Amino acid sequence: MKIAIIGAGLTGLSAAYQLAGSEHEVVLFEKAPEVGGLARGFSLEGEPLERYYHHIFTHDSTLRDYARELGVEDALEWLPSRMGTFIEGRTLPFMGPKDLLTFPHISLFERIRFGLATLYARQLKRYEPLEQETAAEWLPRVFGKAGYQKIWEPLLRKKFEAFTPEVAAVWMWGKIALRGSSREKGKEKELLGYMRGSFQKFHEALAEACRARGVAIHLNADVRKLEREQGQWTLQVGERRETGFDQVLVTLPPKPMRALVGQALDADEQRRLEAMKFQGAMVAVLKLDRRLTDFYWINVNDYQVPFGGLIEHTNLIPKERYGGYHVVYLSRYVSSEDPFFQESDESVLQRFYAELPKFNPAFSPEWVKESWLFRDAYAQPVIPCNYREQMPPMVTSAEGLFLANMNHIYPEDRGMNYALALGKQASQAMLQRRTEQRVIKPELTGAEQAR
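Now predict its structure.
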């Protein structure tokens, strides 16, 4: 069987790795000059670094299994992290029960309620009832109105902006339940995983393993058109045509996916793809000559600050790896149609710099020795109520055409671990479909086979 995979992010690489072998010819097409998708990186002082901050959790079993199989498990480091919340002009530690009990912005009763609600959410096993309710309805009902307004609502609005009223409670439950399992028993600090050499080491190892299994990986390969001809798929890749594919897996975000495969899908599948909503992301990476804060991660619960997260990477990873410089990410989720997304790099960076004295009064733009700004229009899916009934299918009505992207990760939130798991799931669906096509049961009538 000849298989094309479009997109060499972690989902595409994972699927290619699983499908490769003597029975199948697998060809992977990637528009960018390198593999990795949103996990791609760049070089800072000679050390690879992600464009968009990345870490993993102790429960990310799929990625850990892959790392073991690829021989890079020893490069994984597990490090205690320090989290904080910026609220009403101050950054407060916000890592566990002790910090919650001293949190001054809600009453003692509301703090106790918030803590009990967190325990309840983490123990909740059946998430299906939460599919019917929005996060904006569920959170104040369970955590209390004050806890919602001071803690959860700013985080939701910073991430989803105008889409906030649509976000399902199940999405928020996933964040709360899964994050709790990354803490060592009896300890408040969360253990986070990072890879020496950045996660670029991981996806390069996965790409090399794919090649070793016979996968052909074409970079700078822009797939512009997809057609089914005489029972097989043909791809228009730049100016050339690639023919003879029995199956195609498309791992692109919804809009480019729809542009590529829309005509091959039935009306319901097209409608589902068109209904998918996304938030984009803008992430500034700053190289500073001194430390900015004492925290690894700060959630910014202040609507006036134009970014929602301040991640001081070198408060988790030693600054010596980056030539002694301190590395800070400033993250803003925003629709790609918002005017802010269209602003120049310099304008956005100046806006961000203007807010940093709130986190360290001594800050001066002179601390910034180098900076970068990265943008992606498809960073965070918007998960509405009853999402399972609205998801685009993985196995489509078009014979041999399969879809897999962040919209298929549910009820968990997107992330490297789940992107890898999605690739495995897609490969299994493709192989199962091929097996079904080969099985012939003479005892069944045509109508029975159709069922």
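Residues 440-451 have pLDDT under 50 and may be disordered.
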